[in-house]
Amino acid sequence: MSRSFARALVLGALLLAPLSAVAQPAEGHAPGRWNSLPPPIPLLWRVGEGPRTVYLLGTFHLLRADDYPLHPAIYAALDDAESLLFELPGESLFDPALGQRLIEAGQRSDGSRLRDELGSEDWARLSAAARSVGIDPRSLDPLQPWLAALSLSLAHMRAAGLDPALGLDRHLADRAARAGKPVEGLETKAQQIALLAGLPPELQRRQLADAVARSRELRAEVAWLHAQWRDGDADALYWGMAANLKAREPALYARLNRDRNEAWLPVIRARLSGAGTDDTLVAVGSLHLVGADGLVQRLAEMGYRVERIAGDSPRAP
User: How many domains does the chain have?
Assistant: First the structure.
């Protein structure tokens, strides 16, 4: 497995969807046109034993039509919850302006070109990798390295059959909206954009070089991650993605995963301790739930009862 942040975002942050254009899926590929495959085993936990319950659901931000319908346990948790918490507010998942803001944040504003920053040899490699997935290299020239890397990686993910418009977050947000249930965000749009736009230049270039060097392997890697998600294998997702990223790029791991988890914990704990009996479904990238830094383990360490639903309990490293 690679250390690339683009791969980590498949399991960790929602910005892949607006970047890919938030158009609805083509006819015949929308969730609701069910197939006969068994549903994915959910990464779903129940937290709490008092009057309030929080459900933790690990999502995959790009899916295929044959990943639907979801496991009945997910729909049961959605029905039981009075509100939902995602990484971003529900309306942001369908907001075309978010994608435009992300692109604007990744544009070079000083008149320079990406090819000049990279040098002729690296630019030639990037150009070849871009053409292999139908991207005109000239469209990458005005971009910061992080956005070029993300654009290249996303093109490979879509070529592998994964579609951000079919992501689990969007599907649940749509069902919640139709049921009149509020979908709030753990972060703002500005925070998620800054998550990427604020990466140090050297790290941006390193991640772009990784995306170019491993672009042929990306489809297989993402397909493997998707298969582990379908199998509900929390251990495999941790060791195949989180542990690798933590070992190779500890600062990036902290920025994308650990620090955000710590910022979210007080919000989740407030949902468990508030007055009344309202329950909450928290749906975030699966990267945020697995391993010793994951929300599942952290809440268990704080003394909450945490129980896996429709799957085996994870073994925290």
Answer: 1
Q: How many CB atoms lie within 10 A of CB 235?
A: 16
Angle, helices 120-132 vs 201-213, to 10°: value is 50
Task: Quick: pLDDT tens for 20-60.
Answer: 433 333 333 344 445 567 999 999 999 998 899 999 999 98
Helix H, strand E, coil C: the string for the chain is CCCCHHHHHHHHCCCHHHHCCCCCCCCCCCCCCCCCCCCCCCCEEEECCCCCCEEEEEECCCECHHHCCCCHHHHHHHHHCCEEEECCCHHHHHCHHHHHHHHHHCECCCCCCHHHHHCHHHHHHHHHHHHHCCCCHHHCCCECHHHHHHHHHHHHHHHCCCEHHHCHHHHHHHHHHHCCCCEEECCCHHHHHHHHHCCCHHHHHHHHHHHHHCHHHHHHHHHHHHHHHHCCCHHHHHHHHHHHHHHHCHHHHHHHHHHHHHHHHHHHHHHHHCCCCCCEEEEEEHHHCCCCCCHHHHHHHCCCCEEEECCCCCCCC
CA distance 222 to 156: 9
Q: Is residue 145 part of a domain?
A: no
Q: What angle do CA 54, 227, 311 make, to 5 degrees?
A: 40
Q: In which domain, by residue range, is 101 found?
A: 5-106+163-195+217-309
Question: pTM of the prediction?
Answer: 0.88
Report the candidate in 208, 160, 143 with the shortest Cα–Cα distance to residue 62. 160
